[in-house]
Design goal:
By secondary structure, the chain is α+β, with helices and mostly antiparallel strands. The chain has 6 helices and 5 strands; from the N terminus they run E-H-H-H-H-E-E-E-H-E-H.
Length: about 130
């Protein structure tokens, strides 16, 4: 298993749409994601990776945004059809990115399953996002 960086619209278009559709609790539309993919991909603060199986088939996605003001990574979406990578491997991968970019080690993660993140040391901060 390895994370492979998506570098442009051609590699983004290789990602099967259904992987994004499997993400539970998302606040964004998959149709709009693909409609605006070129703009999203060209944003230097937005990063995508895919996870491939041994047959080079894309089986997972990781979408992050760098918050340059707080100096943190924000995980927008993570989904994989496989048991790997584990959530710990994803966390460690992200911490490596954060370290390389001289960002803070703490990662903000959008999720509707905070229990899974608590298992790896995740904390619910005092400040939360409220939809109005």
């Amino acid at each position: 298993m390895e994370f492979i960086r998506v570098n442009g619209i051609e590699s983004f278009n290789r990602i099967p749409r259904y992987l994004f559709e499997q993400i539970k609790g998302r606040s964004w539309s998959v149709d709009r994601l693909f409609e605006y993919a070129d703009s999203i991909i060209s944003n230097p603060s937005t990063l995508f990776w895919v996870v491939e199986d041994g047959n080079k088939q894309i089986k997972g996605i990781l979408w992050i945004v760098i918050d340059v003001l707080s100096r943190k990574l924000n995980v927008i979406a993570f989904y994989t059809e496989m048991d790997i990578p584990t959530i710990i491997e994803v966390r460690d991968f992200l911490r490596g990115i954060a370290s390389g970019l001289e960002l803070k080690e703490k990662i903000n993660w959008v999720t509707n399953e905070p229990e899974k993140l608590k298992e790896i040391g995740g904390e619910i901060p005092e400040t939360i996002i409220v939809e109005v």
